[in-house]
Each structure stands twice: as structure tokens, then as C-alpha cells.
Amino acid sequence: MENIFIIKLGSSTILEGTSIFEEIKHVVDDGYKVLLVTGGADAIKQQYNSIQREMPFLTLPNGDEVRYCSPTEMPIIKDSYKDIIFPKVKEALSKYNLSVFTQLGGDNEVIIGRKAKPLKAIRNNKSIIVRDSLFGTYEKSNSDLLKNLLNCYDVVCVSPPIYDTNLDSYINIDADMLAAHLATDLKAKHIRFVTSTPGILRDIEDSSSTIKDIYLGEELNSVKGKMKQKVRAANWSVKNGICDVCIVGPHTLNGKGKTWFWDMPDDLGDLEFLNKCIRIPSTSYNEREFAQFVLNNIEKENISGKIDEVGNLIFQKGNGPNRLMLLGHMDTVPYNWKVKNTEEGIHGRGVVDAKSSLVNFLHMLEEVDVPKDGTLMVIGAVEEEVSSSKGAHYIRDNYNADAVIIGEPSGEENLTLGYYGLYKLKITIAKPQEHSAGKDAISELDLLYSIVDKIRNKVDKIDSKNLSSLIRVNSSHKEGINYATGILNFRISPEAGKNYSENLNFDFGEFVNVEVLRTTPGFSNPRNCKLVKSFIYGFSAHGKKINYLKKRGTSDMNTLAVSWNEVPMVAYGPGDSSLDHTSEEFVKNTEIRNARQILKDSIDKWFLLQGGVK
Fold it and tell me: Distance between CA 231 and CA 215 in Å, rounded?
């Protein structure tokens, strides 16, 4: 499961009835499965008050006070969650038609821990040893069960206490650390610790003093009280998991008071923003958290920014008639792994395809001096890596440009002039069951493969340069019918034209259905346009000669080319495209910087060739 979003809520946020539940609804709508981890301090106080019992505390040698959870107190702790927290969560989320499952972490031994060693405490100014405190640490979870629950419900809510199987007892655990460990176990994409303050404050008395970024190992002398545990949990998450980590508030996911935690050096200079972007997962369909992060980090008076109706990230600088569009994409393919920095470069999902290109585009918003008659648009599209290409289709139909640079890896010394198109078919065989030894019997799989051969022969006749691959085959049986399905991909050369599919007919009889999933034409840009000439200048300014490429893959360039006739388009960006979609994505720091300089000089030249009025 790739799309897990963990949200840790304190009981004060839950009981105050803030907008947090509507925000959780939006997270679910964005395609995430939400694991909600709840604290219970305020609810526990309510529970003790309701039974008119004084809540016991222990004073630690460092002066901190902690709640004393003995075997006698544990039933009260459990009831606080079951009677107060869980009903409140269910009631609040049901208003948004969300299905919710709630349970104590220790129920059915879903989350296992170990009781801590006896505590040293101070009582009546004397040091004592407390042996019956049922406080402990996390050990493991039944992650398969939790994933199954997340598949069945919109929101799964768990809380302390967890279970110690050796002790055969529930034990209490800090809810922040519980969330951090679950994020690691479940390989969550995002974790948010929602608190009552706007992130971590340098001065607890100044709500505007939010610390924006914290790097692993950084000392935080200003952090006091319960916030220490949140920082500890956040550091655990970022050190041991693959998710991005943020402490946010007050009582909201969307407040500007956000403190981000990064497992990266704090001295990366002009590569810092890229390194942060690589560390925020954004696989296809789940790009919004990344988009919002970028939007919040590019706030200049002369730059407008927004997330449009389909989720594309849109920036604009200038408002003149000569419009240059830099079109990258935000999404990556699965799966995410931990980003690694070396002296030479960056290793991580999406660094090649294609966040290095997109972040270089974003740098242009600050570095390019757009003339009065110019407009520079920088766009991060959604769903480029999947067949829908939703972002590019919306851009094609709702925006315009005089020239387009696509953000895809070409390598700093290459310029991509075109791409093959994609022709994607789903073949379904639905054949009545028959005995395999019968005369003239043919299995559904044999029939599928024979149909694939016939389709390939038909496509070869209209495009001899095509490449094809049968990428997925499944078979099943239901109520006397044998089924076989296959996904057949063709890479179609630009020479086949835009209307290549109109001459293809796939009528193979009653047992066969061929569904066309995608018909994207190939595209090839000429070398004699102003856009290419601008890159020739940009390359030569850095002592380089262009190598021209035509790629057999597909990009958003193909989608725009369907109707953007006569609009010059090229693709440029750092990285080796042979590493696309592999677990070896890596780009050298020098290549990222060199490509950025070439890009800037090329953009400056394009505006100049268009008439560039300063």
C-alpha cells in the first residue's frame, strides 16, 4: 500500500471540534488512506473528573511531571479513549460520510510493546523506585492487519495503550512516538503532528516565531515540556522512515505555522530546495502535499501562484504577449525509498524523472528577468506518469503559450526534440469453458496471444518503426466463462502522424473485445525555430555543442502536440533518462547546476529573439 497518510492529533484538537475533521476529509479525497493516531491527555482529565478521582502523577529526577499509570489506573486510561475520544472522532468524521474504524493499539495485540524498566522518582524530597508503572516502549505492529483495515475504511483510528505479551497486560505509550513508529512500519508517505501551537516556536510567548526547518541532529534549546516528545517523535520518523515530517498547528493541517524535519545537511545552498522536494513523496494521484509545499515556499510579489482545478501547480511571472511555458511534472512512479546525499550528487525517487528538471524551472522564476512584453509560466503537472495525463490534458485545453520547454531528463549536453507516441490497448477474451482435449479447442490465453500477433501486424503496416510490448496478462474463470486480459503498448513514431489510429479496425469475433485506452501521437520539433536557436546560444555560452535526441518514451509534449499546432516544443533537464523508473535514480550536483545555467541563458535568449522589451 503506497498511499498512507498518518495524522497524530492531541485530544485538545479532537475535543475542541476544530476544522481538522474537514481537513481529514480533503486528505481522503486526495486518495490517501488515513491512519489517525490520537492522544488522550484532556480526555483522561475528563474521565478522572467524571469519577471524582484525583489523577496521580510522578515527579522525575529532572523535575518533569508524568502521569502515573499503575495497574489500578489502566482501566481509567482505556475508558478515556473508548468513552470520549473514539465517539468524538466517529461523530465528527461521519458528518463527512467517512467510514471510520477505532481501537486501542493493544486490542487484539495489534500493536505490541514492552514495559519500561522501573522508574526513578522523587517523593517527599526522597528518591524512590516505582516498579508498577505501566509505561513502556513500542516494539512492533501487525502491519498487515492495519493495511487491511485501511483498505476497508477511509480512516483507521488507533491510540495508546498498546499490549505487552510478556506481561499479558496493556501498557501506556506516548502517542507521538506511537505515530512515528507506525509511520516507519507502514512506510507512510506523510506524517503530521498536529499541535496547539503554530509549529515549533523559538519563543513560546511569540506565536509568530515558528521555526520553519529543522535538520537532523540540530539542537533545539527553546523546546520545553511536552513539545520535546513531539520533536523526538518527528526526529525518529525522519531518521527511520521515508515520509516527510511536519509539526503543524494550531489545531490544523493547513496553518502556516509549520515546522519541517529533514534528514539532510543544512549547508546545501542552491540545492537545498531540490533536496527538500525529493524528500516529499508525490507518486501519481497523490501530488497535492508536494504541490502545497512548493506553493508555500515560492512567495514573491511579482510571482503569482496557485493550484488549479485538477491539481496542477501554476506559477506566472510577467504578463506580456510573448508567453514561454516551462512544463514539468510533480508525480513520480512508485516506490519511495530513503533519499541519500553524497558529495557527488543526490540519490532518490524522482530526482531524475523529473524533480530536478521541475525545480530548475522553479529557480527560473527568481533568476530570469522577464521583459515587459514577456510572460514566464512554470507548471508542475499531475499524473504524467500514468495513462490519464490529466494535468497535461487540462493544460492543453485551458492555457496557451508561444513556446514550451518540457522538464524531462535529457542530460545537460542534450536537447530532446521529440518523443514517440503511446498507443495503449486492453484486449479481453471471454470464452465459454470447453475441454482442452476437444477438437479445435483453443484456450483463452492462446487466443489472446494470437490476437496480439494480429494487432501487431496491423500496426506494423501503418508504422514500421513502432515498438510494442505486452505488459500485463491475467486470466480468470467465472460462471462457465474463461477470461483472459492483456495490456498491449505500442510506441508510435512521429512519422505515423496524428491520425494513425483512424485506419485501425479490431473486429476479431464474438469472444474478443479490444478497448483503446490511449492514442497519443508522436511529435518531433524542427531545428530551425527560435526556441532551438535559443538553446544553441545557451549551450555555446557554456562551451557546449548540442546533441539532439528523439526519445522512444512519451512525455506531456505529446499531449500538447495533439492540438497545439505550430507551437515549438523541446525537452531539457538534468539526469540520465535510462535511470527513469529504476531504483538507481541519481543526478550529479554539477549537472543540476550546469543545466540550470544553460536553461537560464536559453530563456533569456528566447525572450530577446521575441523582441524582449525591458
Answer: 11
